[in-house]
Amino acid sequence: xxxxxxxxxxxxxxxxxxxxxxxxxxxxxxxxxxxxxxxxxxxxxxxxxxxxxxxxxxxxxxxxxxxxxxxxxxxxxxxxxxxxxxxxxxxxxxxxxxxxxxxxxxxxxxxxxxxxxxxxxxxxxxxxxxx
Length: 131
Prior knowledge:
By secondary structure, the protein is mainly alpha-helical. It is built from five helices and two strands; from the N terminus they run H-H-H-H-E-E-H. A two-stranded antiparallel ribbon has the order 1-2. Strand 1 and strand 2 form a beta hairpin.
């Protein structure tokens, strides 16, 4: 394993793609931005987990949070926010049926904030591991 550097780099790239450049908003639909933020969050989670030589059981937000929680304390508000946002699209679960709805701009903004927090957690943990 130990691909956490690559996971973190890719997470930042997805975050950047979803956010847009400078003062210009991205010319992407809310659904595409939601999925880019979700990919960025997934990559941040994978970086955090891989730093510890671990892997999640699956790639749902629930599974990613469970894997992160084995190694890093996740603020309860952030955990709940991510679990709430997972309900917009449950497409990776092997237990639940496929569910997808169009995210609103408000939902996309909430996921963007949660993703930035996860990227920040991964960057902080990386700095602790390196320093």
